[in-house]
Amino acid sequence: MPLHKLEHFDPNYRETFGGDDVKALELYTQGGERVGSVGDVLVDDDGRFRYLIIDTSLDSVSKKILLPIGLSRIDYPTRRVYVNGLSRQQVENLPDFKQDAIVDNDYEEKVRSVFRSPTSNVTYDRDTYNYQNEPALYGLNEQEHQTFKLYEERLIANKHRIKTGEVTVGKHIETEIAHVTVPIQKERVLIERVVPTEAGKVVDPNELKFQEGEVARIEVYEETPEIHKEAYVREEVRVKKVVERETVEAQDTIRREELDIDTQGNLQVQEHGTTTNQAI
Questions:
Q1: How far is the C-alpha of 164 from the C-alpha of 177, rounded, in Å?
Q2: Is 114 helix (H, G, I), strand (E, B) or coil?
Q3: Cβ distance 137 to 111 under 8 Å?
Q4: Which pLDDT score, from 0 to 100, does residue 175 have?
Q5: Phi and psi dihedrals of 35, rounded to 5?
Q6: What's the whole-number mean pLDDT along residues 216-229?
């Protein structure tokens, strides 16, 4: 199975591990002796840690080596990796890891042979070898590598747009009887016969002029109403939409997991770099 450097396998590995970065952690023995630092990690196709690439500095011997993950214990709070013994002899016998090194089955077997217990009954076959055959080298100690997650609920506020109705604006015609008054004038001829002021006066026959036919013409007029209809703009109606904003507040009960630590005996428990004395 091919191996990959951690960053090549998962470019966002820091987010995957909650911000923890295994790279550049210091490597110590269980007795507290610094023996190097972690330069990188090799993982398999499933993302399982298989080797730590270690920059060793042990007894004036400095070289890059591969350390099977099962021999280490990672402590992120102290930013340390602890190894169950790493001797100068082992460092010298391990192949020097080069940046362009091809880590195939045979290369891994050279590494395993240095760390393998003399009492091991594992027989190496490059075609059938499986990491599960040697849990001492590749299995994580559950008591030393227990990791669990604390969960917390949170309220997520989203919104979506729904149709609540529609408004249709149209026109219709209403009719009514309209009344209008128009004053008009009519002319008429009034003929009055009155007693003359010179009644009984004798008129000179030479001045008499008797006439027949038309003696006067008067034109008579009257007004007639002229009614017609005309249209005009009574009002304008503008239709538009406005957006009204309001804040809707919601509440619910959310849960959060907290860590409970129960110890027995006189212990020092380190939690994120803070030392707490626990005693009963």
A1: 41
A2: helix
A3: no
A4: 92
A5: -125, 5
A6: 89
Q: State residue 125's pLDDT score.
A: 86
Indicate whether 278 belongs to any domain.
no
**Tokens, residue 142:** 């559950």
What total of structural domains would you count in the chain?
Answer: 1
Q: Where are the strands (E) in the chain, listed by range?
A: 4-5, 26-29, 34-43, 49-58, 61-68, 72-75, 80-83, 267-271, 274-278
245 assigned to some structural domain = no
Question: Would you say 50 and 2 are in contact if contact means Cβ atoms under 8 Å apart?
Answer: no
pLDDT value at residue 172: 92
Query: Which pLDDT belongs to residue 185?
Result: 92
Burial 53-72 (b: 16+ CB within 10 A, else e): bbbbebeeeebbbbbbbbbb
| Span of 163-177, 205-219, 232-246 with lowest mean pLDDT | 205-219
Instruction: Say which CATH number the domain at 55 has.
Output: 3.90.50.10
Domain, as residue range, for 146: 4-154
Does 203 fall in a domain?
A: no
Task: Name the residue among 133, 138, 135, 110 with its Cα closest to residue 122.
Answer: 133
Please name the residue that has the structure tokens 């507040």: 249
Q: 68, 49, 28, 66: which is closest to 147 by C-alpha?
A: 49
Please tell me which residue, 85 or 10, carries the higher pLDDT value.
10
pLDDT above 90 as % of the chain: 11
Please name which of 64, 67, 69 lies closest in space to residue 97, comparing C-alpha atoms: 64
Residue % of the chain over a pLDDT of 70: 89
For the entire predicted model, the pTM comes to 0.50
Q: How many Å apart are CA 49 and CA 69, to the nearest integer?
A: 6
Question: Which residue type, as a one-letter code, is found at position 23?
Answer: K
The mean pLDDT of the chain is: 82
210 token code pair: 């008797």
In a domain, 274, yes or no: no
